[in-house]
Design goal:
The complex is a heterotrimer of chains A (353), B (552) and C (434).
Chain A (H helix, E strand, L loop, with lengths): L3 E12 L2 E12 L3 E5 L6 H9 L6 E6 L2 E2 L10 E4 L11 H11 L4 H15 L14 H13 L5 E5 L7 H18 L2 E6 L2 H7 L2 E6 L2 E6 L1 H6 L4 H6 L4 E12 L2 E6 L2 E6 L8 E6 L4 E3 L5 E11 L4 E7 L4 E6 L4 H4 E2 L2 E6 L5 E4 L1
Parallel strand pairs in A: 3-8, 3-9, 6-7, 7-8
Antiparallel strand pairs in A: 1-2, 1-4, 4-5, 9-10, 11-12, 11-14, 12-13, 14-21, 15-20, 16-17, 16-20, 17-18, 19-20
Helix pairs in contact in A: 2-3, 2-4, 3-4
Chain B lengths: L1 H30 E2 L2 E2 L2 H8 L1 H34 E2 L3 H7 L8 H12 L4 H8 L14 H25 L3 H9 L4 H30 L2 H5 L6 H8 L8 H27 L13 E2 L3 H27 E3 L8 E2 L2 H8 L1 H34 L5 H9 L6 H12 L11 H26 L2 H9 L4 H29 L3 H6 L8 H9 L5 H27 L11
Parallel strand pairs in B: 3-4
Antiparallel strand pairs in B: 1-2, 5-6
Chain C lengths: L1 H9 L3 H4 L5 E4 L4 H19 L5 E4 L4 H14 L8 E3 L4 H8 L3 E2 L5 H6 L3 E2 L2 E2 L7 E7 L1 E6 H7 L19 E4 L5 H29 E5 L2 H9 L5 E5 H11 L4 E4 L8 E8 L5 H11 L2 H8 L16 E2 L26 H6 L1 H13 L2 H14 L2 H8 L8 H7 L3 H29 L1
Parallel strand pairs in C: 1-2, 1-3, 9-10, 9-11
Antiparallel strand pairs in C: 3-13, 4-13, 5-6, 7-13, 7-14, 8-11, 8-12
Classes of the chains: A alpha+beta (353), B mainly alpha (552), C alpha/beta (434).
Chain lengths: 353, 552, 434
């Protein structure tokens, strides 16, 4: 069993009477790369700041390593924090920035020096250690911020959208770097982002936040394959949605659904409260034409991404569906002017309205 | 949290006790006698012809000086804003030079030049331009006007310059475009838009002028409120009219301040500061421009030049320039008991008061920006109050309030002098800190906390090093202002061993023989230090130096 | 955060940075006197008492300012004001201080008292009850700028009255008696020399010619030397200093014939003096031969002051047995007037206020009226110009009640209004005449 390292219970926060966090609870286990994913403005940064202790929650508890730290000042928590804007101190050199936390802890100069060298090694910052923050690139700044937070060996490391200020190429590079560092240091990390791609590639667990609340927590696979609602489904990856109505229960776990594209058959394990539902499927969950669950449409746009081909088709009813297929399979789906495909009944995701 | 409130209450109490309480005391003394409200003191004060005359004279002086500084400062600002010419940057700094010596100091030398058989008259007589010497000094009133004008017009210049800097020139162009003439445009567009800046500068100059104690004392001109108040210090216990006069001054400053502030709020049309780049015209009549600028500069530096000359003159009798020179006065400055004491004291007072300024001002600024506690607004108001209290009022209040206590200025004024120096400059430091902290990202501090640093370490290692250059510049200015501060120094320092430089200068200037020369040498010394300080802070602050001479 | 709290509480401690015991003297004497006397006294003290002493000087401006200051302090602290000695400012302040009981008695050793003549020119040199002692003698006269007079082709005045001659118009310097004790002395001398009526006429004429009234006597003497005015009322010491600086060829000083007064410049211990022993020793010192010599010797001379010549006449006659550059012995000045020092002391405050109200506070109008009179030469106007609302006989009544602020203010307002009205009428009538 994994060891629990951080548990938050019923955190609530208001700013000037306006609620920003509502009843947030979850647990993070040792070695996790825990993601909090949500659109901007959903309160995730505030939440991270509450864990770090920069902001006080109105209600709720934070338990770190079996200790209640809710009322502890930030400097007593031993939680690392990497800021979105890095917050490097402009008046200190790179190595001084990194050494700061150790110096605060009054380690010997020799020890500090050794640790800093080590950290410079891990983060590959050796050549720039004597430069000032304004003399180095964004990616380097990012790594300095990371090194600075990691060097004091915090119980957990919080990262607030650490890659958002970088350009796409650098972001990819640093994402890999982060993964490596996570592996090497075996640090528990909590990472806040609005970029689902980052979350999917790096995380061990993801909490999806929307409007002050956590909607779903789970591994990337769980969340992708079994989203709790339409928001989660559309936030993580792409999804096609058809409005429908359950008209008939064929047998155990199989229903017939009526939509304006016709009737569909889908597995269903939990009977929804309402008959009106959204019938969803991922772009890649399709096969070539079968007997049931067939959709026919004209090709509207396509996007060739190398390993996949993304198609956008429009049906006679005017619905647009996104499909993702192997480029070699393109001909399989093609029948004259039209693209015809079907969705396997196991691969439908049925969500309530 | 409790600690924070404790500190907050402590600082607020400190400011209330040393700022508001003296003012309250003045109010009580001028309106209450034996516990009863009465207007007797005012009747007595206003009933006195010569005091009435002094009040009128002070008003007159203020208005005239505002007028004269406008005449010089406004066109100057326009020339610098609208035209391009070589050496503009240097000239701009040179035009700040007149501020480095207060007229109190330069007045000692100027008498030698404009007296009836002084340099100017002798020159004119020799040239045959006049037959009989002219009395430029008059009763001394004219001398005060001239010196205050030459000292204060840079303030007008700075304020109008910054107004013009924030001024969108396309508004003028739009006016021309619609067929307005230059004059119409100036009257209808330009003038109303720079009016708030002009108004603020005028208020400062007016208040400065009527509360200036040093200059009238040097010219021995008695009939001004400031001098009346100063003279009243001696019999503060037997004659309450001083309180009433101080109250009047306070009333004028506060109303002017509130009025200005309201007016500026009402008329600040600009929604945001749009730094518009407008093309500076290249001026054609270069000779005219340069010669008039240099003439103006020369005239405004005459007091300083005279000061320098006088400090080196061994004999200056009935001649245009001294007939014999010597450097003995400078030797005296650094060897004479009184001057040595003065320099030592002033350095001590100013450095301690500047340190307090920086620490307290910084701390208050920090509380205002960072702490999330209730009633923060109180501290904000308290820290800006010194702007409303002229030095002469504060010092008078202190003498009235603390005589016969542990802090009695007669026994030992050190604490009160240091306090008055630092309180007077506190708003500027608070403001500087406030704005630089606003620009400082809070994350920088949080990063430090998250690494385990406590408040003090974070403050010492992170916040202070980052915002200190700006505050350092402010501190340097505060230091130089304190070094040559006049009103509080003259009033609070009664015993010789506590004299700061300005009091020493005043005492020396009244000495019969070599006193004025030594005073001038000491003045030159002060001028050089002030000049250096001003230069350093200009380097750091660049154009923002004007903030130090603005209201609101 | 703690550092700052600490600082706030720590600050008052700076006060003690400077604390120490010493002799505290309030005095209108100029810097040079303070420096030379301090230096000499400290040496003398160390030699005689084998310990060090420090002298501290307080100054509030002129004699009247110092006097006001002391009185104001005594009002709040009747038992002592933390100041040991009042030094300088002539004779009259001491009569007043003694009368109010602000002085401490101290009898000099008999052998020293024996050496001081009881009187000089009819004025006592020390208090017969030993509350105050004259230290030096002052004479009062006219300082003039030779170059300026030559340029303006003006004659030298011989008497006080000459100063009222029209050709001196606006070239005369004088100061406000409400601040300067020596200036006050000269107005008093003029009043006593010419009598009440003629005295006032002279004072008014002088005021008409005065360019403007300065606050201090020293400023007047300097204005004379820089040529702002050509001649001025002056105490001997200031005049002699200016002569010393600018040269005998440029400046001169005269005593009006038969109209001068020799006045002791005194010292007295203040009631409740905190360092009374040192204060007594200070007075002992001032009457030592060494100290007395200091006043008259030139700077740098043997036994003389080191940095500043003091140019004062010592009170001990034995000093004049030596020969000096300044060949004057106040004890030999014959043509002095009969000076009623008690009257002078009594009416000191009302004379100040009279000159203040009649002349100085309305000097702008006075000058204008005077210039019109000089132009029209109208005798009637002149007569009017000299009018004052106070009769000689009511003087006593006035000075007896002068301490009552209501009484005093009533008169001040009456007087100033009278004067303003008077000058206004003259100006209007004069314009009509022209």
């Amino acid at each position: 069993m994994e060891r629990e390292i951080l548990r938050v219970e019923n955190i609530e926060k208001k700013f000037d009477g306006k609620e920003v966090l509502k009843n947030i609870s979850f647990t993070v286990y040792e070695n996790d790369f825990f993601f909090i994913l949500g659109p901007s403005g959903c309160g995730k940064t505030t939440f991270l700041r509450i864990i770090a202790g920069f902001t006080q929650p109105d209600r709720g508890r934070i338990i770190l390593n079996k200790k209640d730290i809710t009322n502890l000042p930030p400097n007593k928590r031993n939680i690392g924090f990497v800021f979105q804007n890095y917050a490097l101190w402009p008046h200190m050199k790179v190595k001084e920035n990194i050494a700061y936390g150790l110096k605060i802890r009054k380690y010997t100069d020799e020890f500090v020096k050794r640790k800093v060298e080590e950290m410079l090694e891990i983060t590959k910052l050796k050549e720039i250690k004597d430069l000032y923050p304004n003399q180095i690139s964004g990616g380097q700044q990012q790594r300095v911020a990371l090194a600075r937070a990691l060097i004091v060996d915090p119980l957990i490391l919080l990262l607030d959208e650490p890659l958002s200020n970088l350009d796409a190429k650098l972001r990819d590079e640093l994402r890999r770097e982060l993964k490596r560092i996570h592996k090497e240091t075996e640090k528990t990390m909590i990472y806040v982002t609005h970029d689902q791609k980052e979350a999917m590639t790096l995380s061990t667990n993801i909490a999806i936040m929307k409007d002050k609340e956590i909607i779903q927590i789970g591994s990337p696979y769980e969340i992708y394959t079994n989203p709790k609602n339409l928001f989660v489904a559309s936030f993580i990856g792409e999804i096609n949605v058809i409005k429908g109505k359950i008209v008939e229960k064929i047998k155990e776990n199989l229903v017939k659904i009526e939509t304006d594209e016709g009737y569909f058959f889908s597995d269903l394990y939990k009977i929804p409260n309402s008959k009106d539902i959204f019938l969803c499927f991922r772009p890649e969950s399709i096969t070539k034409e079968e007997r049931i669950n067939v959709i026919k449409g004209r090709l509207k746009e396509y996007e060739f991404l190398g390993e996949t081909l993304k198609l956008s088709i429009i049906t006679e009813k005017g619905n647009i569906f996104k499909l993702s297929i192997s480029p070699y399979d393109f001909e399989k789906y093609r029948r004259g002017e039209n693209i015809i495909f079907s969705v396997e009944k196991e691969k439908f995701i049925i969500l309530e309205e | 949290m409790k600690k924070k409130y404790f500190l907050f209450v402590l600082i607020s109490f400190f400011l209330i006790y040393f700022l508001l309480y003296p003012v309250f005391h003045i109010f009580i003394q001028s309106f209450f006698q034996k516990g009863k409200f009465t207007l007797d003191v005012f009747k007595l004060t206003i009933g006195n012809y010569i005091i009435r005359k002094s009040i009128i004279n002070s008003f007159l002086l203020g208005i005239i000086v505002v007028f004269t500084t406008s005449i010089i400062g406004v066109p100057l600002a326009f020339i610098f804003d609208r035209f391009y010419f070589k050496g503009k940057t240097i000239l701009r700094i040179l035009f700040l030079l007149p501020m480095i010596a207060s007229p109190f100091v330069s007045g000692i030398g100027i008498k030698q030049v404009i007296s009836r058989f002084g340099s100017l008259n002798i020159l004119l007589l020799k040239l045959g331009i006049i037959k009989n010497p002219i009395s430029f000094l008059g009763s001394g009133f004219l001398g005060i006007i001239i010196l205050q004008t030459l000292h204060l017009y840079p303030i007008m210049f700075l304020n109008i310059s910054s107004s013009l800097n924030n001024f969108d020139i396309s508004t003028e162009e739009a006016s021309y475009n619609l067929g307005a003439s230059w004059f119409q445009t100036f009257l209808k567009i330009t003038f109303p838009l720079i009016l708030p800046g002009y108004f603020s500068a005028s208020s400062i100059i007016f208040i400065w002028s009527i509360t200036d104690l040093g200059t009238p004392l040097i010219f021995e001109y008695n009939n001004l409120i400031a001098v009346r108040i100063y003279n009243n210090i001696k019999d503060i216990n037997t004659n309450p009219t001083g309180y009433a006069l101080v109250f009047i001054v306070l009333f004028i400053t506060i109303s002017l301040f509130i009025f200005t502030k309201k007016y500026i709020e009402k008329t600040s049309y600009t929604t945001g500061r749009i730094a518009t780049l407008h093309s500076e015209k290249i001026i054609e009549r270069k000779f005219l421009l340069y010669s008039s600028l240099f003439l103006l500069l020369f005239i405004s530096l005459i007091p300083h030049i005279t000061l320098l000359l006088y400090s080196f003159s061994k004999k200056w009798f009935f001649s245009i320039l001294p007939s014999q020179y010597t450097d003995e006065y400078y030797k005296i400055v650094f060897t004479h008991r009184l001057t040595k004491t003065g320099i030592f004291n002033s350095l001590i007072y100013s450095s301690i008061s500047t340190t307090i300024d920086i620490l307290l001002g910084f701390f208050i600024g920090y509380i205002l920006v960072r702490w999330k506690i209730k009633c923060k607004g109180l501290l904000d108001i308290l820290s800006m109050i010194p702007l409303l209290i002229p030095g002469i009022v504060l010092a008078f209040g202190y003498v009235g309030l603390f005589s016969n206590t542990l802090l009695d200025p007669i026994k030992n004024p050190v604490f009160l002098i240091i306090l008055s120096y630092s309180l007077r400059r506190l708003p500027y430091i608070v403001r500087t800190t406030y704005s630089s902290l606003l620009q400082l990202n809070e994350n920088l501090e949080e990063a430090s906390y998250s690494l385990g640093a406590d408040d003090i370490t974070t403050f010492k290692r992170i916040i202070f090093p980052i915002v200190s250059p700006g505050i350092f510049a402010g501190g340097i200015l505060a230091f130089s202002f304190s070094l040559m501060e006049v009103s509080c120094s003259l009033i609070l320092a009664v015993r010789e061993k506590f004299y700061p430089i300005s009091k020493v200068i005043y005492i020396l200037s009244g000495r019969v023989t070599d006193g004025p020369n030594t005073a001038c040498a000491l003045g030159v010394f002060g001028m050089i230090i002030t000049g250096i300080c001003l230069f350093i802070s200009i380097k750091i602050f660049s154009k923002k130096i004007g903030d130090f001479f603005r209201i609101g | 955060m703690k550092i700052r709290v600490f600082l706030i509480f720590f600050l008052p401690l700076f006060n003690f940075l400077y604390s120490e015991k010493n002799l505290i003297i309030i005095s209108p004497h100029w810097e040079g006197v303070k420096i030379e006397i301090t230096r000499s006294f400290c040496e003398w003290y160390e030699k005689n008492y084998k310990e060090k002493v420090k002298v501290e000087w307080i100054d509030q401006g002129g004699t009247s300012d110092d006097l006001k200051y002391v009185e104001s302090l005594f009002k709040k602290n009747p038992n002592g004001i933390g100041i040991d000695i009042f030094f300088g400012g002539g004779l009259s302040p001491y009569l007043k201080l003694k009368e109010e009981g602000f002085l401490e008695k101290y009898k000099l050793p008999q052998n020293i008292i024996k050496k001081i003549p009881k009187l000089c020119g009819g004025i006592p040199n020390y208090d017969n009850e030993f509350y105050w002692y004259g230290v030096v003698l002052s004479t009062f006269g006219i300082l003039y700028n030779k170059m300026a007079l030559k340029f303006l082709k003006l004659p030298l005045p011989k008497t006080w009255k000459d100063l009222g001659e029209d050709y001196y118009y606006s070239y005369l310097g004088a100061a406000d008696p409400r601040h300067s004790g020596s200036m006050h002395m000269m107005y008093e001398i003029i009043l006593q020399a010419y009598g009440w009526e003629d005295g006032w006429k002279t004072i008014f004429s002088i005021a008409g010619n005065t360019k403007n009234f300065s606050l201090s006597a020293s400023e007047v003497s300097r204005q004379t030397s820089i040529g702002e005015v050509a001649l001025s009322l002056s105490i001997d010491s200031y005049a002699l200093s200016q002569i010393e600086v600018n040269g005998r060829e440029n400046m001169g000083f005269i005593l009006p014939e038969g109209q001068t007064v020799i006045n002791p410049d005194c010292i007295g211990i203040l009631k409740g003096a905190p360092n009374i022993e040192v204060a007594k020793r200070f007075i002992d010192f001032l009457f030592s031969y060494q100290a007395q010599l200091l006043w008259i010797k030139g700077k740098g001379e043997k036994g003389g002051p080191k940095e500043y010549s003091l140019n004062r006449f010592p009170i001990m006659p034995e000093i004049y047995d030596l020969e000096f550059e300044i060949d004057a012995n106040p004890y030999k000045i014959q043509n002095t007037i009969k000076y009623d020092f008690q009257l002078a002391a009594n009416r000191w405050p009302i004379l100040d206020d009279m000159i203040g109200c009649f002349i100085i506070d309305c000097h702008t109008q006075l000058k204008k009226a005077w210039s019109i009179i000089l132009k029209t030469k109208d005798e009637n106007l002149k007569k009017k110009f000299y009018e004052i609302p106070v009769d000689k006989k009511v003087q006593r009544f006035l000075w007896e009640n002068w301490k009552d602020p209501v009484f005093r203010n009533k008169y001040l307002n009456e007087w100033i209004e009278f004067s303003l009205r008077k000058f206004k009428n003259i100006i209007i009538e004069g314009k009509y005449l022209m």
